[in-house]
Structure formats: structure tokens, C-alpha cells
Amino acid sequence: MKNSDRKNLKSITETVREIVSEVANYIKNESNNFQRQDIETKNVNDFFSYVDKESERLLVKELSYVIPGANFITEEKTIDQGDGNGYCWIIDPLDGTSNFIHGSTPYAISVALQKDQEIIVGVIHEITRNESFYSWKDGGAYLNGARIHVSSVEWVSDALIATGRPHNYVYHYSELMDLFNHFQYNTHGLRQSGSAATDLAYVACGRYDGRYESGLSPWDMAAGILIVKQAGGNVCDFNGKEDYLKNGTLIASNQLIFNEFVSIVDKICYGKKLSVE
């Protein structure tokens, strides 16, 4: 990538961080006023609220000025797509809504920018700790201005692994529970934070050594995928390919445990398709 292109992406990333920070302040303020009767249900254990909707509206409004005409893929689907021009914003306005509703943590805003199907900018802002994780293509990964890297753990048995259960996990209950049980009892621990975006950011900075999940949506993982890669990690889907945004399965970790991690998932799943159609 040319230096001029890299500088432009850095500038876009900083602008996105400013926008996301403002919306994060809105969410933080609303956390003091939010009432549980304000929630709505999309699916089993899948909730949203006026905070999700308003956060998305604010993000879409401001990001529309950054790259005029860009498409949007958004969790709450509050807008029509633009003309595109090869650019597409992928937005989760509040990842970890259930945590937010219950006054628990973490919850985050996740924003990614694609150019011709390639993720080139990623920003994840974990609101309760005021931590901004971000990266741009060929620019490295950062947390509040400091460079971050994935962990140096060499074996899955020594790893702290994160996961989540998709809202439709009942359809793959046996396979997913086999994976869950394996990592629960054969690693340093298995964590379920309730925020896929935050988990991926934690893989990028070494707090977690790896993460896997089935049933994800593009907005759950797009920004995190880039941040993990730019922090020196590896990412693939459950088939060992890079179709994660299409099939909703994800494996992410540092490079040292990656092959072993993927092999375990493949062995336990026996190549079964765990993607969501």
C-alpha cells in the first residue's frame, strides 16, 4: 500500500474514532436512565432498545459524511443502502445489548469499513472501560493510542479462550456443546462475555488467546477481524477459509496456537456445517 493511501486510512480511522466516542458518550449517559420495560425482542434471548436504534442513527448520520455514497450494513437496519462506490460501513451500534440492559459489562460499538469486500478500517469502543481499539490496513493495531499485539501463548492447553452462544444455537446444540466442554476442561478457562466485538479486541491485545463462535453476523466481527490480524493474529471460519462474513463462523487467535485451535474445532465438529443460512 502506498504511504499516501495509508495516511488517508489513518485519517479516516481517527475520524471514525471521534464519531464513535461521541456515540459512546450517549450510550453511557443513557445507561443511567434506561428502564428494562424499554426493551424489545427480536428473537429468543435477542433484544434491542431505543438506545440501539438511536446509536445507529447517530453513527449512520455522521459516517455518511466521511465517505459520501457508501453502503451500510447495520444491525438494526434503520436505513436504506447507498450507491456504494465500492465502500461499505458495517455497524453494530451496541454489541452486548443484554449486558447493557442488565447493567452488566462489557458492551461496545463496532464499526468497520470495507472497500471492494476487503476490511480496511476497524474501530471497537468498549464503553464501560472507555477503551478504543482500532486499526487500518497495514497500519497495525492500537488501544487508546498504544500499539497492541496478540499473546505469545504457545499451546491451546495454556490458553484462555472466549466464545459465545448464537441465538439459534439449539440447531447445532450437540456440536457446540462438545466444543464448549472440550475448551472448558482442556484450557486455562473458557469465557462468555456477551460481546463478540469486545472479545476479539481482547484477543488482539492478548487478554484472551483465542475466540470461536458460530452464528455470528458481519457486524459482530468485521472490525474485530481486522484488529486481530493487524495485531499479529490469524482468523478463519470453521472450514479454515476466510468466508466468515458469509457463513457466520469464526476462529481467531495468536499465530502460535492457531493451527492447533483450528484442528480441534475441525475434529470435534467433524466438518459439520455450523453456519447460518
From TrEMBL:
<feature type="binding site">
    <location>
        <position position="95"/>
    </location>
    <ligand>
        <name>Mg(2+) 1</name>
    </ligand>
</feature>
<comment type="similarity">
    <text>Belongs to the inositol monophosphatase superfamily.</text>
</comment>
<dbReference type="InterPro" id="IPR020583">
    <property type="entry name" value="Inositol_monoP_metal-BS"/>
</dbReference>
<keyword id="KW-0479">Metal-binding</keyword>
<protein>
    <recommendedName>
        <fullName>Inositol-1-monophosphatase</fullName>
        <ecNumber>3.1.3.25</ecNumber>
    </recommendedName>
</protein>
<dbReference type="GO" id="GO:0008934">
    <property type="term" value="F:inositol monophosphate 1-phosphatase activity"/>
</dbReference>
<keyword id="KW-0460">Magnesium</keyword>
<feature type="binding site">
    <location>
        <position position="94"/>
    </location>
    <ligand>
        <name>Mg(2+) 1</name>
    </ligand>
</feature>
<dbReference type="InterPro" id="IPR000760">
    <property type="entry name" value="Inositol_monophosphatase-like"/>
</dbReference>
<feature type="binding site">
    <location>
        <position position="92"/>
    </location>
    <ligand>
        <name>Mg(2+) 1</name>
    </ligand>
</feature>
<dbReference type="InterPro" id="IPR020550">
    <property type="entry name" value="Inositol_monophosphatase_CS"/>
</dbReference>
<keyword id="KW-0378">Hydrolase</keyword>
<dbReference type="Pfam" id="PF00459">
    <property type="entry name" value="Inositol_P"/>
</dbReference>
<dbReference type="GO" id="GO:0046872">
    <property type="term" value="F:metal ion binding"/>
</dbReference>
<feature type="binding site">
    <location>
        <position position="220"/>
    </location>
    <ligand>
        <name>Mg(2+) 2</name>
    </ligand>
</feature>
<dbReference type="GO" id="GO:0046854">
    <property type="term" value="P:phosphatidylinositol phosphate biosynthetic process"/>
</dbReference>
<feature type="binding site">
    <location>
        <position position="75"/>
    </location>
    <ligand>
        <name>Mg(2+) 1</name>
    </ligand>
</feature>
<dbReference type="GO" id="GO:0007165">
    <property type="term" value="P:signal transduction"/>
</dbReference>
<dbReference type="InterPro" id="IPR033942">
    <property type="entry name" value="IMPase"/>
</dbReference>
<dbReference type="GO" id="GO:0006020">
    <property type="term" value="P:inositol metabolic process"/>
</dbReference>
<dbReference type="InterPro" id="IPR022337">
    <property type="entry name" value="Inositol_monophosphatase_SuhB"/>
</dbReference>
